Amino acid sequence: MAKSLPVSPLAPASFPDLPVIKGVRFASAAAGVKYQGRTDVMLAVMDPGTSVAGVFTRSKTRSAPVLDCQAKLGGAADAGAAILVNSGNSNAFTGHYGQTSVAEITSAVAEASGIPAERVFTASTGVIGEPLPHDRIVAKISELNDALDETALEGAAKAIMTTDTFAKGASAMVGIEGKTVKIAGIAKGSGMIAPDMATMLVYIFTDAKVEQAALQAQLAEICDRTFNCITVDSDTSTSDSLMLCATGASGVDATGNAEFAAGLERVMLDLSHQVVRDGEGATKFVEIQVTGAASDADAKVHGLAIANSPLVKTAIAGEDPNWGRVVMAIGKSGAAADRDLLSISFGDVLVAEKGWVSPDYKEELGATEMKKQEITIKVDLGLGSGQATVWTCDLTHQYISINADYRS
């Protein structure tokens, strides 16, 4: 949408000060993909030796860029790598034209950077079903390549925004054998967010050395506890991707290192939470903790049923402690539950237990919890040791306004 949106009330105070990741450089430009004068293309170029891992939307209508990236993963790292991202148009549901656009862009990046086309990854985000004006992007690639700078990650974060109201970044510093490894990432995402292998655009870079297969396995595992545990509106994108690039420039081998894995998870969790905090029209950040389920998988099913319920989300928007809607969501989830073993709390306020409202519950206590900007809903199934945590936001009138006006 052309007009700017007010910054989310849940946004961080400012964009973080991200560390320089040696071995990768960035540039951004205004190509006029959808709007004139708006920065909408970013290029990242990685040095030889960079391992690249990725997870992608499992939508059955995946875009041409996603299919191309999936086909290229696992290639030799000796020639380096590049990532080109545009906003304003998703290049999805565009048939053979979409494939042509990807080929034209990757060829142009390869020519300008000297990186083989099979190591050039692209992504597009924006409106579905409109041909990508790739010639506008191609015309900017030489300019982008000439402007590459290792300090320009914040500009790249801004270039990939669509309905986002703030640029998203996060970082971590990890000590390994007396040396410091750096991790920095950016993300875009605000709507069409539901967990199914990274339903947004996320790019994370580290100067650690990690073998590609190990990096891929680690990324997928952590994704299931972070990006695959968030939802804004239950809709899974056709286009979006999560890529992790390890340049190895620090000389520190982090393959299989627990401290590195923990640092990576902190960055991914931070970015995933920022996506929820920028949920279209969001005014509340909601954490749903499910315990006592028959299995961890069941706990996640219950958590997402609650997080995706329009009735739960609108009650939260209206600051109504309507615990009956939580009961409804649990009952419809399809995972194991027993009404008479169930307990529900809003924050530390016990609302319901043993199939009935708690005898100590007072409506004003629940209402006080609902007035908070950050809300925790706790559910214990009383069936086993399964547990999961998911994150969501409320559903407001502004969400409708943003999406009713999205293509105008």
Automatic annotation (TrEMBL):
Subcellular localization(s) per the UniProt record: Cytoplasm
One Pfam family here: ArgJ
Site feature (Cleavage) residues: A198, T199
Domain of life of the source: Bacteria
Pathway assignment: Amino-acid biosynthesis; L-arginine biosynthesis; N(2)-acetyl-L-ornithine from L-glutamate: step 1/4; Amino-acid biosynthesis; L-arginine biosynthesis; L-ornithine and N-acetyl-L-glutamate from L-glutamate and N(2)-acetyl-L-ornithine (cyclic): step 1/1
Subunit-structure text: Heterotetramer of two alpha and two beta chains.
The protein's name: Arginine biosynthesis bifunctional protein ArgJ
Designated gene of the protein: argJ
